[in-house]
């Protein structure tokens, strides 16, 4: 399985929010159900810009 970017993950989660069944999305993108639900727990409700901002904040915290 290839590594998905945060943008791709958010797009997949948005498809699920639009009503596409999780099983269908997992098959389409070659991911496991557990991966989908981990992503949903971690990134659910976020936009790509939110994730980038969070990553930047974390990098700043770790660099000090």
UniProtKB/TrEMBL annotation:
It comes from the Bacteria. One of its GO terms (biological process) is DNA transposition. One of its GO terms (molecular function) is transposase activity. Pfam families: HTH_Tnp_1. This is Transposase. It comes from Snodgrassella alvi. The lineage of its organism: Bacteria, Pseudomonadati, Pseudomonadota, Betaproteobacteria, Neisseriales.
């Amino acid at each position: 399985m290839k590594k998905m970017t945060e943008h791709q993950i958010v797009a997949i989660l948005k498809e699920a929010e639009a009503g596409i069944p999780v099983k269908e999305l997992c098959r389409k993108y070659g991911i496991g159900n557990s991966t989908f639900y981990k992503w949903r727990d971690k990134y659910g409700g976020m936009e790509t810009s939110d994730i980038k901002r969070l990553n930047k904040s974390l990098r700043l915290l770790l660099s000090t």
